[in-house]
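Fill in residues.
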């Protein structure tokens, strides 16, 4: 299977679950023990607005490889007009780019790199 041929929205679908699992584990390890508190805190990491912000930080700090940026840009440039009401289309596309990158890394068995990215985000 050539992962680069997989639809970027499918990569983002997978990446979303991997990303959210890392965030939930981080918050539990940080000591949050009530589901309502976990949910409120998780939003600060999993919202499209914040995902787009974290991606932009990684780009600004040259944290991503060329290959990773290519995956992000494929997802960001994917033709779609739908997006949640909570954010604009550009923010949504950047968030999708981050999720697609995580999905790509998951499918290519780069779990250490996912950990590095998540550590950058959750630092």
């Amino acid at each position: 299977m050539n992962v680069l041929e997989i639809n970027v929205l499918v990569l983002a679908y997978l990446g979303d679950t991997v990303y959210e699992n890392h965030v939930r584990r981080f918050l539990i390890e940080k000591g949050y023990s009530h589901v309502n508190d976990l949910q409120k805190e998780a939003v600060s990491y999993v919202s499209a607005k914040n995902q787009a912000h974290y991606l932009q930080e990684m780009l600004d700090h040259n944290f991503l490889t060329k290959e990773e940026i290519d995956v992000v840009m494929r997802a960001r440039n994917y033709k779609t007009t739908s997006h949640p009401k909570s954010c604009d289309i550009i923010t949504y596309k950047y968030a999708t780019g981050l999720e697609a990158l995580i999905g790509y890394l998951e499918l290519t068995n780069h779990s250490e790199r996912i950990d590095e990215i998540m550590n950058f985000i959750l630092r």
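DSSP finds six helices and no strands in the chain.
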